[in-house]
Amino acid sequence: MARIGYARVSTLDQDLDGQVARLTAEGCTLIRSEKLSGGSREGRAELATVIEFLRAGDELVVARLDRLGRDTRDVLNIIHEVEQRGAFVTVLDPHVSTQGSMGHVMLTVLGMVAQMERRFIRERQREGIERAKAAGIYVGGKRRLDHEWIRALHAEGSGPAAIARVVGCSRMQVYRVLQEM
After folding, report:
1. Full domain range(s) for residue 170
2. What is this structure's pTM?
3. Which residues have CB under 8 Å from 124's CB, separation 6+?
4. Cα–Cα distance between 75 and 88 in angstroms, integer?
5. Mean pLDDT computed over 112-140
6. Which helix (H) or strand (E) holds 96?
7. Does 138 fall in a domain?
8. Are residues 97 and 152 in the same domain?
9. Which residues pair with 33 in a beta bridge?
10. 110, 155: one domain
11. Is residue 153, in this structure, part of any structural domain at all?
12. In 3D, which of 54, 42, 44, 108 has the Cα closest to residue 82?
């Protein structure tokens, strides 16, 4: 029986250290982490790896339920997949586990709260953008990639895969930047 931790943040500039430290302190023998949105399961390879790794009696541990996902259906599907493997899910804050009968009810309610919170975040973000546009100060999101560096590496003869490794992004992002040229 292993305690396996899963940590997630939504953006590349956010920090995973707090979650990883908490999972380590809770005795997780293996911790997988990723920096991707919890809005859907798409592209969350580390989560898929953790679920595939689980064996009967294992425990999947997350710091908060919204680290598993922000969509109630996704969270419940993840919990179902974990249980199909004979394992269970434990959320540290607030402490809830699917090992007990009330755990499922609590996690369903917490999942709905996480989904509602995600909707509120989107609504506040949209309102803020609309206000900024109305004031004429909206300039769009912060650019996460150095497009000039990518173009320079390409001009030096580097291929998209090599550029992606150096810059720390996907090849698709490199292709998008190069298409803008």
Report:
1. 147-179
2. 0.66
3. none
4. 13
5. 87
6. strand 96-97
7. no
8. no
9. 7
10. no
11. yes
12. 54
- How many domains in the chain? 2
pLDDT, tens digit, for every residue of 21-37? 999 999 999 999 999 88
Is the separation of the CB atoms in 24 and 3 below 8 Å? Answer: no
Q: Is 10 a catalytic residue?
A: yes
CATH of the domain at 34: 3.40.50.1390
Neighbouring-strand partners of residue 31 = 5
User: What residues contact 130, with CB distance under 8 A and at least 6 apart?
Assistant: none
Please check whether residues 15 and 96 belong to one and the same domain: yes
What does the block give as tokens for 165?
A: 């490794």
Instruction: With H, G, I as helix, E, B as strand and everything else as coil, classify residue 79.
Output: helix
For residue 21, give both structure tokens. Answer: 């430290």
Q: Is residue 151 part of a domain?
A: yes
Burial of 31 (0-12, 13-18, 19+ CB in 10 A): buried
- The reply to whether 129 falls in a domain is no
Q: How far apart are CA 124 and CA 142, in angstroms?
A: 18
% of the chain surpassing 90 pLDDT: 51
From the candidates 10, 37, 97, 158, give the one annotated as an active-site residue: 10
